Structure prediction request, 435 residues.
Amino acid sequence: MSAWLWNLLDQWLFGERSRRTGPLPAAIRLLRYPYAILRDLSRGQVNLRAMGLVYMTLLSVVPLLAFSFAILKGFGAHRALEPIVYEFFRPVGTSATELTRSVMRFADSVSGGLVGSVGFALLVWTLLGTIRKVEDSFNFLWRVEQPRSFARRLTEYLGLLIVGPLLPVGFIGLSHAAMQSAAMRSLRGVPLMQELAALGLELSPYFMVAAMFAALYMFVPNTKVRIAPALIGGVTAGVLWAAIGKLFTTLVVASTRLTIVYAGFALIVAALLWTYFGWLILLIGAQISFYAQNPNYLRLGLTELRLANGEIEELALKIMYLVGRGHVTGETHWTVDELARALGMPGLAIARIVTALEGGRLLIATDDERLLPGRDVGHIPLHEIMEVARSQRSGQQAAPGLRVPAVERLSARLETAWRTSCGERTLRDLLEESA
Prediction:
């Protein structure tokens, strides 16, 4: 799609008409979400992440199942993994059964100690690397610049590996127990209940997929994800999984060209294609959950945020002003998300400046992420705020180059001018002036 068409859609979806009240503007605002997803996909960054995860899947699928086998064997439920693996490969068509048996056989051999303790340790290390790759992809989509520490990764990843297999198996066990209960047996004679039970059994894999996706969206990104956006992303990804899975199955079954060209490798090609689509669906759901929680990013998308120096200085002053006023009046204790909504800016821009202001000891963050002045507002000079804003850099500091005396004298005069404008004024003076 050409640039002019994307620009036209951008102006239509984010223009003056979309900010009005009524059903049509509301529908236009709702269309921003599929537009943002398609725009991000067209730029290729999400697709590349999905391709990288396909490669990691080839390395980790057997260790993942082997580790799950080892956990579930203690509960005597390791065979319950087979229907879950089959559900993943089911869109491949008639070859799903063969793929499931092969993978389960490999995993059973590995979990039985065939590769030895050193080999199993290497497989677990590969598995931890795969989870880190997933976290990096989610952090990229959530604009999180600070990953988990090594200690947090080790403990949380191992916890995920231990608890993860138990949840779907427990879901399946509870479903079977509910279907075999006395209440359900008594209702089986009712035709309507039989139809509802059959529909529930048919839809249960998709409910499980949506729930697993929502759980990943909540706990994998290294940021606080609310329940509602995670559920929105999980349900959206579950619907896409069902729809694209049906379409993929139809294409695989109907296409004879794939078998003719790839012969015996057609099964592997189909499995790789579906794995790619599966990861792409997972990442699209993560993107949906991010936009649901941060609608200010719908227009910016994955474009790198670059503010002019003047914008950074003005934003730093506004942040300090709002935080200082909230602290003095006691009416509002701001968070980064609340500042982003109030200022109409993406949270990433606010977070970067807040981090710089914290580094300059002008702001402090409480345990519940509320922002407070780093000291009394009467002891925060405005020139310190400006200095922090003007000292922001992207990348390494440039080496000193050719000296041009005329330029240096002009820079010195400009430096003197803004310092003179600030004078001895403090943040309290700015608050009182506004009042």
About this structure: The chain has a mean pLDDT of 77. The radius of gyration is 27 Å. The beta strands are 363-365, 371-373.
